[in-house]
Amino acid sequence: MNPRPNILLIMTDQQRHDAVGYVNPEVQTPHLNQLAQESVLFTNAYTTNPSCIPARAAIFTGKYPSQCGVPTYMTYLPKHEVTFMKRLQEAGYYTAVIGKQHFWKSEIDKGYDYLEIIDEHFPPRRIHKEVDPSRFGLPSNSTVLDSASSYICFLADSGFTEGSQLFEKVPSTKEVYRWKADERYHVDAFVGDRGVAWIRNQRPVGKPWFLTLSFPGPHTPFDGIGLPDEALYEQVEISLPSTAPEDIFQKPPHFRHLLKRYCELDETAQAIRSRMSDAEIRLMRKSYYANVSLIDRKIGAVIEALKECGDYENTLILFLSDHGDFLGDFGMAQKMQCLSEVLMRIPFLIKPPIQGFRGYQENSFVSSVEVAATCLATAGCEVPPDISRRSLTQFFNQTEAPVRWDEIYMEARDIRGIRVGQYKLAYYAEREYGELYDLASDPEERVNLWFDGQFQEIKHRLMTRLLDKLIQLGHNMHVIWHPDTPPI
Predict the structure, then answer these.
(1) Whole-prediction pTM
(2) What is the tens place of the pLDDT at every residue in 278-305?
(3) Which keywords, in A-to-Z order, does the entry hold (predicted)?
(4) Candidates 3.40.190.10, 3.40.50.720, 3.40.720.10, 3.40.50.1980; correct CATH number of 6-122+166-241+276-404?
(5) 217 close to 187: Cβ distance less than 8 angstroms
């Protein structure tokens, strides 16, 4: 690995682990497929949390959501936390961000020299006063609006002040929208184009740089219908989920509340009166996949720009999403407070800054909380003792033997989960119920074994492993009790 390589962190929002072509051939992502050939492809990568704000807080700090004070969607990083971007900045890196971040109300020093944060998907209802366009690196004749991102300003300059000018809901569907405007006005096209422009015109020369390029899609609204990429799926019969809405009757009660948005439940008979039709689920997935394909094209353009400027070989590229989406599984869409595989497993690959690196698949467990240590180790920075300290550089740095995990830990406010081998447990605080699955025989989590008498020993074993993990995650637990005290 070359000294002081550049680092490019590419993120998407709400992209399932199987919404990439190298996992699911129905999804057209040729550029990510090629990048995977030159990368360590993590086939068992998990997020820390099924919601945007806590999942991203864990990535930025290297701490699990409960450790950094962001356990829910309605929380945000306290000022005393330190992002790994700030540590890179202090180590001499020029740091930049273009796209979604979801710091929400946090006043933390984000650690960026250049900020172009774009958390929106469409114009707000009200436009505020103008400010200096140089704040966004835009030309002096651009309209820039207070409390608005460069994307909103770009739309305003182009005459778009309402989301209805850009897309419209497809009738008789719950989540599907049709894109009406030119592709260049789509938020993911804009983020990708701004990324290309930054690499070509704004990246520092003679100094290592870090860039977060974060696409707001394919998060709802599922607005891929109408994009040019929809044509890629015209001749494809998109697969339906193998799960069924009735499966949620084996799950904790709050699953039913989300399902009621899409179905009518007869809880006494444990039956579903109506649901999203197969045609609607296929259309929803088509819209979602078309958005993914747009993002893939823009990632390809960014990689091409890196190659043109000669920085590709000396740039570490990470690609991942913050969490997944039900996308029709169990008759639902979007996300909720639970640890279902379709929400927790994410696409994750790392292209090392090594010329001619031959990619391979790594099947052991990795977590998005390890992004921080990985970026810091790549930059030659010390990894603080109070964050998740394993760096994924070990999977391509031949000077060290990889330390592989046989378990993966997850959170969702008062839910704690662990997967050990083929078994996965979700513990619900102060509840008698929970979730336990054998993913070898039931990868879709249709059969909850929590109360099954034949699996109580396995449940006890996973509960013990979970308790061990919770103790390990305590603050300063790396410090010994006393130098003169015998170990327990």
Answers:
(1) 0.95
(2) 999 999 999 999 999 999 999 999 999 9
(3) Hydrolase, Transferase
(4) 3.40.720.10
(5) yes
